[in-house]
User: Fold this.
Amino acid sequence: MSFEKYLSNKKALVITLDDALYPQKDYLLQVYYLFSEFMAYSEQIDAKAIVDFMSKEYVENGAQKMFAKTAAKFNIPNKYEHNFDLLFETARLPLKLLLFQGVLELLQEAVTDRVRIFILADGNPAEAINKIKQIEWNGLQEYLKVYFTAEYDNSINNTLVKLLEEQNIDKDDVVMFISKNQFESNSVDSSLESFSVTEIL
Assistant:
């Protein structure tokens, strides 16, 4: 697939992290697995039952209040909520996170075309760093610069303003790819040329 339509005459490519670079569920489900193993070791609760419950709950209702729901189902003491939360920042995943194939090809073409690549990481910076470290970058990591929205009032648009200012880039010289959810919720400045990542998957 050629990405000339997106990269032609651009100096910078900006892409968000979760569900734009890689499928977020690949991270969450591995963290749930690690937590279930920890519960099996600490409280002798059936690890498979826990991870099956969490996986089903995630598919049906998303990641919200996952610890509370799992704790209620399996009588897990509240003291383990801290361990659960900490896992998202520190977990060493059994499997590397793989970039969407279309995104990998887009980033490779951007590097070839000397288009600068910026990652916009939303949410908790420690968790974002942990994810970024465990993505299989195929040698692309040296071409990336990361901006954390947490440093700019947790606003994607504020972060973009600062990025353009610091990097001395005009917004007309930027193309941005964001997750389907971010695209549908109009969470990005509409004056910036942006696409849902689903367009290249």
Q: What stands out?
A: The CA atoms of residues 62 and 88 lie 16 Å apart. The mean pLDDT is 96. Residues 24-43 form the longest helix (20 residues). The chain is about 50% helix and 15% strand.
